[in-house]
Amino acid sequence: MTVRGVRGATTVQIDETETVLHATSSLVQEMATANSIAPDEIISVIISTTQDIESAFPAKAVRTLEGWKYVPVMCTHEMNVPGALPNCIRVLMHVNANTPQKDIKHIYQNEAVKLRPDLQN
């Protein structure tokens, strides 16, 4: 078993608490499901948002998922780069896995599919 990084990103239409929490929860759950990851296999999760998202801590959505209470989660803001995709939530999940790096399924939802078109199926 080794440590793998699983990436994901999504966007929201508007910066509202429930919208941010729902989008984060949906993304993280799809990342875990697509890669058959159980919460006790997760080392940590880092969530970043573009600076236009400030209504909620996305980590709250992760901590409230069934079985995820003790998963270490941290939020931060992305660099404010001109022309960057707005209203974006990015997730980096560190997991213990036997899966080869090339077989990890990185999940991009909504407008975030533009970030890594090379990883879309």
TrEMBL record:
Pfam family, one: CM_1
GO molecular function, one term: chorismate mutase activity
Biological processes annotated in GO: amino acid biosynthetic process; aromatic amino acid family biosynthetic process; chorismate metabolic process
Catalytic activity: chorismate = prephenate
Key words, A-Z: Amino-acid biosynthesis, Aromatic amino acid biosynthesis, Isomerase
Domain of life: Bacteria
Enzyme Commission number(s) from the entry: 5.4.99.5
UniProt-listed InterPro entries: Chorismate_mutase_AroH (IPR008243), RutC-like_sf (IPR035959)
Residues involved in prephenate binding: R7, R90, Y108
PANTHER family: CHORISMATE MUTASE, CHORISMATE MUTASE AROH
Entry protein name: chorismate mutase
Native source species: Sporosarcina luteola
